[in-house]
Description:
The protein has 327 residues and is α/β, with parallel strands linked by helices. Helices cover 32% and strands 22% of the residues. It is built from 11 helices and 14 strands. The chain has helices at residues 6-14, 25-37, 63-67, 72-83, 101-105, 118-131, 158-161, 173-176, 180-198, 269-276, 314-324; strands at 17-21, 41-46, 88-93, 110-113, 135-141, 144-150, 208-213, 218-223, 250-252, 257-260, 281-284, 289-293, 296-300, 306-309. The chain has an 8-stranded mixed β-sheet, with helices on both faces. It has a 6-stranded antiparallel β-sheet with strand order 9-10-14-13-12-11, with helices on one face. A hairpin with a 4-residue loop joins strand 9 (250-252) and strand 10. The radius of gyration is 20 Å and the shape is globular. The N and C termini lie far apart (58 Å).
Amino acid sequence: MFAGIGIQGQKRLSLARVAIVGCGATGSALASLLARAGTGMLRIIDRDYVEPSNLQRQMLFDEGDAAESMPKAIAAAKKIAAFNSQICVEPHAADLTPENAEELLAGMDLILDGTDNFETRYLLNDFSVKNGIPWIYTAAVGSYAVTLNVLPGETACLACIFPDPPGGMVETCETAGILNAAVNFAASVAVTESLKLLTGAKDKLRKTLLSTDLWRNDRAEVNAAAPRAGCRACLERKFLHLEGKGRPHITLCGRNSVQIHERHRPIDLVSMGERLKPHGEVRHNDFVLKFWREPYEMTLFPDGRAIIKGTTDAAIARSLYARFVGS
């Protein structure tokens, strides 16, 4: 009924294929809005699981998901199926990497950013620019929200605006808190831009980096209508992040935790659970295993990846992983 979309726009939307990378606060709002609008296919990619502290801002999840430590991608797919069973949702409980980016993102009409780190965003930017697939950068922390449409070859990309990742201390939801209203504001703007693109209203797309602070009532826009001269991605075609250069094998992951980026190490969670029982408390489902050995908590995924809470020391995290999972 909305004149800007109409019947033909709705038909186009029903055929659209969208990847959402990250399904935390922003990602779950993006997924919910696009699913309710009738987007034909959503591929949801997220490496994490639902925790009670997420529920203040991650609208798709509930206490049952947190109690079961459900992977966010799986939980999101189940929730979406309950309110719109007519669309296709593909959940991938995985960490997006240079090695699997082609498999997970190829063939999409649009890629949306629901991540919480610049490492993955620059990877998305490289893949998007190299393959000519539009993507939308979206972020929120505290009361601040920001979003940018990237149309490869037409507008500025993320590397045009920010040639290098931010250095030094960077605020996160864990350290600065977050207003759930800021999350939903950012997601609503990004989804509106998505609908313009997917329904054929490309001439209505915003060509600026838009930032808003809802608490301070500040708003700013930076022109992003054209690629920046000398951009290493747009113009020089140097895709450093897609090539995996400088990507850490072990990274800090949220508050007092470390992520082990193991891949190519398939793990049978049932067998691993039996193996770990003599050493501490173990709980698992089909998607994730949690192992407690004071003062640490290990969350293990079927692909071998692990998040170890209770330390920010990469050496300790690697030692625990090697001790209980294998080196």
